[in-house]
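Hi all, posting the design record for the shared folder.

TITLE: backbone redesign
STEP: 1 of 1
STRUCTURE INPUT:
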């Protein structure tokens, strides 16, 4: 069956829809219109309807959207109805902070291992997981059905590590290293550049100050 091509812009909005709908569900809200959701999220009602129509619509004329149903359906689209085992490569401050973030498990992402080259970090405990030496990385990935690797290491070693992961069955990489990874197309890569977000924030501060002297 042919899979419909969905734009990255639409995909990028799905986690935000999921988050807002989860909050509404927790508050006991049973249904919501596209206009009401628009006012909450600051996205136009027409954009919301267009986004949802990519996946079949989900709403009923004159009724709106069933919050719990829509929340569950978007979760399925995002693959959150499945479990994903992940490891973290790099046990520095960022790696340990991500390892201690318990909300991952609520979304089906199961923290299975952490690796580092630094002998002083090996054996340290991060939420019940012992930091392992890099020499054990490849066999651990093969033997533990690891889907996702999180890279929080310097860019000098990231390319080599990513290649090793690719050759040992990893399906996706969440890349915090400041380097582009040239991997086979079947391996999904999500690049996160923290400084880029901070520079964008700086731009918006500067623009606001210019417009409001």
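Okay, here is what came back for every position:
SEQUENCE:
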């Amino acid at each position: 069956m042919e899979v419909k091509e969905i734009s990255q812009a639409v995909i990028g909005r799905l986690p935000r829809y999921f988050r807002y709908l989860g909050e509404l569900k927790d508050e006991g809200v049973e249904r919501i219109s596209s206009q009401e959701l628009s006012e909450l999220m600051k996205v136009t009602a027409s954009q919301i309807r267009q986004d949802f129509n990519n996946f079949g619509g989900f709403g009923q004329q004159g009724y709106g959207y069933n919050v719990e149903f829509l929340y569950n359906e978007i979760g399925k689209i995002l693959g959150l109805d499945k479990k994903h085992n992940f490891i973290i490569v790099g046990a520095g401050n960022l790696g340990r902070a991500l390892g201690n973030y318990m909300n991952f498990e609520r979304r089906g992402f199961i923290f299975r291992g952490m690796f580092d080259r630094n002998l002083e970090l090996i054996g340290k405990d991060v939420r019940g997981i012992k930091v392992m030496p890099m020499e054990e990385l490849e066999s651990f990935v093969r033997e533990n059905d690891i889907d996702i690797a999180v890279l929080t290491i310097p860019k000098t070693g990231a390319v080599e590590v990513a290649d090793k992961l690719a050759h040992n069955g990893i399906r996706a990489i969440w890349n915090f290293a400041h380097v582009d990874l040239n991997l086979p197309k079947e391996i999904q890569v999500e690049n996160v550049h923290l400084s880029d977000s901070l520079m964008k924030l700086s731009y918006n501060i500067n623009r606001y100050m210019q417009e409001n002297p």
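COMMENT: The beta strands are 31-32, 65-66, 84-89, 109-116, 125-126, 129-133, 148-151, 172-175, 188-191.
Let me know if anyone wants the other runs.
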